[in-house]
Amino acid sequence: KLASIRILRTQPTTNSMAGAMVLGRCSPPSSAEPQHDAKRRVPADRAGTIAVLDKSDLFRVSHICPGLALCSALSIYTDKETVAVLRPTCLVNCADELPDTPLPDTVRRYHKVPVTDTPVTDLRPHMDTVADLIHQEYVSGGTTIIHCAAGVSRSAAFCIAYLIKYCGMTMNNAYRHVAKCRPCINPNHGFINQLLEFEGKYREE
């Protein structure tokens, strides 16, 4: 059964930083960057501030695209500068073995996906739910940070699924983009096969 979305704070949250930025190795938006699918009424970008931070891949919060960042559980605390710049409004924890994440003050929505990092774990029942949540937060002006234990396999796979569904990317191109922004990603082979199946579903549409 899917974990339910918990609304933690109902008051509006201002998000002046909901825009394009460069964190680590992520480049500014260009024709090579993921463009949100016009059919789903998501703008390709929003105006914002560019911040370049020099951090190791594993311990930094990695900006994937407007409205989405990826990290390890620890990075939320060790990379506070980036979290402060992003002003996340939603946090997704997809590590079954971790407790609920203490939330930054700006976060109003929290979603737990109780999955383990094994090739036999099935992420497919959660892919649409997580992608839709990221999308809904983005179009409302917010930003989602998604993490697992290391920000390498489970959470990376969900970022790839989001780019497939809402940016119209192939699995291969989505993987390459996420790896460019966070070179340490390494979804297990079971997740790769599930993402290829997920891509096929949206290619047929």
Automatic annotation (TrEMBL):
Source species, domain of life: Eukaryota
GO molecular function: phosphoprotein phosphatase activity
Pfam families in the record: DSPc
Span of domain Tyrosine-protein phosphatase: 60-204
Gene Ontology CC, one term: cytoplasm
Keywords (A to Z) from UniProt: Hydrolase, Protein phosphatase
Domain Tyrosine specific protein phosphatases: 124-183
Protein's UniProt keywords contain Isomerase: no
Family (UniProt): Belongs to the protein-tyrosine phosphatase family. Non-receptor class dual specificity subfamily.
Protein name: Dual specificity phosphatase 21
Organism: Sipha flava (yellow sugarcane aphid)
Taxonomic lineage: Eukaryota, Metazoa, Ecdysozoa, Arthropoda, Hexapoda
This protein's encoding gene: LOC112682012
